[in-house]
Amino acid sequence: MYDRWGQFGRPVVLLHGLLFDRTMWWPVGAELATHCTVIAPDLPGHGESPPRADYSLTRIAEDLAALVHSLMLHRAPIIIGHGTSAWLATTFADSYTTQAVITVDEPATATPAVDDIISAAGLNEVPESLRPFAQPKRDPALLSAYESWFLHPPRRRRSPVRLSAADGSSAREEHFHHLTDPAQFATEIRALL
């Protein structure tokens, strides 16, 4: 399952972190829709996407490439990975053409416990009005299904793009930056289009 906003311009693919779902990107998707085509898929077993047998980074990157192709998004996408999906974004970029790779809240180390991932997410920084978009699924079995991500995070062949604020300064380094200020986050993405 995925959401799509906009019909024209460079594709931007928004990947949620483990235990969350595509709804975390709704405020940003709405902000970006007038400037580009935005796609926000649910990872397998998350949101409305069913579970599956193979959760490897390589297989999910292949499925993501098939989605981009099936939607006839003819330009190289900007791939944005939140949390553990930063690893998916970099795996995708190692095999497929991308305009840019952006990682948000990438974990410094692998943390395989549900409560540790949720605690490290920094949900307390998200404004109360936007917290419904960042509701984690407290499911140890789901996290266990993605265990290979933690055992074998990807090696980077290229560095992610660092976002810059509209005034040229460095973008803020707060958790859930895309939800603490969706309009500013969208402005930073539009600068890459």
From TrEMBL:
Q: Does the keyword Transferase apply?
A: no
Superkingdom of this protein's organism: Bacteria
Q: Which Gene3D superfamilies match?
A: alpha/beta hydrolase (3.40.50.1820)
What keywords tag this UniProt record? Hydrolase
SUPFAM superfamilies for the chain:
alpha/beta-Hydrolases (SSF53474)
**What is the recorded name of this protein?**
Alpha/beta fold hydrolase
Signal peptide residue numbers = none
Q: Does the keyword Translocase apply?
A: no
Ranges for domain AB hydrolase-1 come to 12-157
- Gene Ontology MF term list: hydrolase activity
